[in-house]
Amino acid sequence: MKGALRSAFFIALKDMKAYYFKPPNISWGMLFPLVFILAFYLRSPIDFAHLIPGLLSLSLLFSTTSMEAIVITFERMTGALERLMLYPVSVTTILLGKISGGACFGITVTVVFLLCLIIMFPLHLKNPLLFLASVVISSFTFSTLGAFVSVSVKQVFEAQTLANLFRFPMIFLSGVFIPVNSLPSIIKPIAYIMPLTYSIDSIKVSFGYEPQIMHPLLSLLVLTVFAFIFLELSVKILKSRMS
Question: Which of 102, 31, 37 is nearest to 72 (CA)?
Answer without folding.
Answer: 102
